[in-house]
Write a structure and sequence with these properties.
Elements: E1 7-10, E2 14-22, E3 34-39, E4 46-49, E5 57-59, H1 63-71, H2 86-97, H3 102-121, H4 128-149, H5 153-165
Antiparallel strand pairs: 1-2, 1-5, 2-3, 3-4
């Protein structure tokens, strides 16, 4: 169980702070406790049942882990995924996003960046699906790194993009 004040990664929603544990007004009085989750980089509040193992809810990585991942960016393995099917491309990208793993998100980010470089060399543009999932991966990744490192999310983005592009 997470504690009030703790930072967590809530699925595809990103970094949230546990602001309260209790029962929201809309919930039935069946004894179920909920985390009240306040996103760090968005407005609003999310409610997640404390005992629900179907949702992805985990602690934000440590500062040490974040630094280690950033320092190892040049060794992260990646592979450009191509398919003529937009549906298969979306499913492939979403399966990586759904793992909620920083190393996998870095690999996805690097592969889409390289796909963009290849497209540019051929006087083409990166597809909308690629752009959308790149943004999603970066938002999750940079948000978690920023929270772990105590940095601004834009600074983290510049740092990671700079290292990935070198």
């Amino acid at each position: 169980m997470f504690k009030v004040g703790e930072l967590v990664m809530y699925g595809g929603m990103g970094v949230c702070k546990v602001s309260k544990i209790g029962r929201p007004d809309f919930a039935e009085d069946d004894g179920t406790l909920y985390y009240f989750l306040e996103p760090l980089y968005k407005s609003g509040i999310f409610y997640a049942p404390v005992d629900n193992d179907k949702i992805s809810l985990r602690k934000v990585i440590s500062k040490k882990e974040a630094k280690k991942l950033i320092d190892s960016l040049d060794t992260i393995e990646w592979e450009i995924f191509t398919t003529p099917s937009i549906q298969q491309l979306s499913q492939h990208y979403q399966s990586i996003i759904d793992k909620h793993d920083c190393k996998d998100l870095l690999s996805l980010t690097k592969s889409i960046m390289e796909k963009g470089v290849d497209a540019q060399k051929n006087n083409k543009k990166l597809g909308q699906i690629d752009k959308r999932f790149m943004k999603k991966a970066e938002d999750l990744l940079y948000g978690e790194f920023a929270a772990a490192l105590g940095m601004d999310i834009d600074q983290v983005g510049e740092l990671v993009r700079g290292k990935l592009q070198s």
